[in-house]
Amino acid sequence: MNAQILTLSSKGQISLPIAIRRNLNIDTGDKLAVYTSGDVVMLKVLRLPNLEEISETLDEAKEWAETVGYKKSDVNNIIKSVRRKKRK
């Protein structure tokens, strides 16, 4: 575990040391989620999937849907149903 002392600026900002940024492979503009529990603060690097990963996931979902007998119209109806529930 790598621990370092950081200082909070007058604007409420902290800077992550370069060693930590390199270790986590993060750069300017990357997103971090902040979790707190009492006086403990945890950061998690958020990684968005790239187009290839999204395509692979969609292909897997399509194969699964076909194996359980779903048709394209079934999937469309399920999507519409979920969207209706979210609006309520």
What's the SSE pattern?
A: HEEHH
- Per DSSP, the total helix count is 3
Q: Which structural class is indicated by helix and strand composition?
A: alpha+beta
Round the mean pLDDT to the nearest integer and report it. Answer: 91
Question: In which range does the helix fraction lie?
Answer: 40-55%
In one word, what is the shape?
Answer: elongated
Alpha-carbon distance between the termini?
45 Å
- The count of strands amounts to 2
Report Rg.
21 Å
Strand residue content: 15-25%
Low-confidence stretches: none
* Largest sheet geometry: 2 strands, antiparallel
* Strand order in the sheet with the most strands: 1-2
Secondary-structure blueprint:
Blueprint: H1 18-24, E1 31-37, E2 40-46, H2 51-67, H3 72-87
Antiparallel strand pairs: 1-2
Give a short overview.
With 88 residues, the protein is α+β, with helices and mostly antiparallel strands. It is built from three helices and two strands, in the order αββαα.
